[in-house]
């Protein structure tokens, strides 16, 4: 028996997405830049997927740029904002995903770009009062890069309010929505973001594909040079199977947000109840009962077991969970995010993350295995 509670790391490809991708892995193999029928077939599929993604966030198709994933999308937004939009200052946070945190850190080490970090509330949410102070204290052209949902603890940032502050002080706003696309409604017509990043494999789509929303008023040049694909903005022959899978995954998820939110949130609340009942000293990290992403629950247990051993024992008992971001090579070592949030070291924290494929019975089984390990 295997139970998969690591959906924030990646999700299984859904049957709908698999069936949509299959023809483009077998028969429809044409290069979309070719003018013959095979090329035109794949070009039509590519643009249909672009429309699905655009509709999923209420953008225009001209504002959607396909990438190899969320990491490339975030790198493109940040580095092109500096290069092409003449950004001289970046405001971010110390609990961003590593691809943002390290991109910003590179500018801090290797350039004269001013880097500032917004203060965080104890839950990991950006302190909006401090953000406004930072925005008001300089007339340098500024990019604010703050994620929608923290990938480790699930705390949600108030991105609409952040967008309003950026508009007030004429700053660019980039938000990483890799964890929330398809789970929480996003509308770029009301969200004052200049860049928004998404990925396929967090919502039952394939790995190796993502997108970047670039507001049409932003004039950025190619991040990857070559043959001029993706409207001269991202060269390289497009990953057609991945793109059509991403389009289908976004379309299905957006149209089922209400039903799958209700199911997964109910499962998460049941898990919290069982943790409180069976492990009264457990500590919940992040804004777990306030502004939270319903697919993520981060729990600290009082135990002498190293977190790596705790995860190993869970794995032996058939439960897949995580100690932090799976995008870090040392995912079972100490978490930068939890350290910054001040989680006491004697708590060994595990991230359980859910999808609509999970069940109450799986929660019950996991609780029983945790009791065996910890008690």
Please provide a written account of the structure.
This protein is α/β, with parallel strands linked by helices and 375 residues long. Helix content is 39%, strand content 14%. It has 11 helices and 12 strands. Helix 5 runs parallel beside helix 6. The model has no long low-confidence stretch (mean pLDDT 95).
CATH topology of the largest domain: Aspartate Aminotransferase, domain 2
- The overall pLDDT, averaged over residues, is 95
- Largest sheet geometry: 7 strands, mixed
CATH class of the largest domain: Alpha Beta
Lateral arrangement of strands in the main beta sheet:
2-8-7-6-5-3-4
Q: What order do the helices and strands come in, and which of them pair?
A:
Layout: E1 3-4, H1 15-26, H2 37-57, E2 64-67, H3 70-84, E3 89-92, H4 98-110, E4 114-117, H5 128-136, E5 142-145, H6 159-168, E6 172-176, E7 195-199, E8 210-214, H7 240-255, H8 257-278, E9 283-285, E10 296-302, H9 307-316, E11 319-320, H10 336-340, E12 347-353, H11 360-374
Parallel strand pairs: 1-11, 3-4, 3-5, 5-6, 6-7
Antiparallel strand pairs: 2-8, 7-8, 9-10, 10-12
Helix pairs in contact: 1-7, 2-7, 3-4, 5-6, 8-11
